[in-house]
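Quick one, T. Sequence first:
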Amino acid sequence: MSSRAEQLEPAVEQARQRSEDALAQLATQQQVLARAEHQLGELQRYRLEYAAAADGAQSVTALLNRQQFVERIDQAIVQQQAELARQHRQLTQLREHWRRAHARESALGSVVAQHREEERRAADRHEQAELDERMQYRRLR
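Structure tokens:
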């Protein structure tokens, strides 16, 4: 007959795997977020450089083209900011998912540890009872 702790081991292993998977997803999302932040910084830096590089003697057409291009960069910045916000929300959701998975893993681990401790104490009591019985038997001889 298997012990209660042994019966719970598959659940503990499954919880451990889910926690590890959630942690891997969290790490991946942190990398995605870092790339999105970097890309936003690059867009902002490029916009500043492009706007600062305006020549004083330009035709009206060149000025309009430059203005349209700056507007497209501004749109890209707005889109990237929205993407960054979406990535932050995703990171928050994945962090919460990992936190729940980790809490479940810890709880199951604690339950198994309690069962193992109870089983150890029961085995100790059983062994002590056997020793007491043997000692009692020896005294009677």
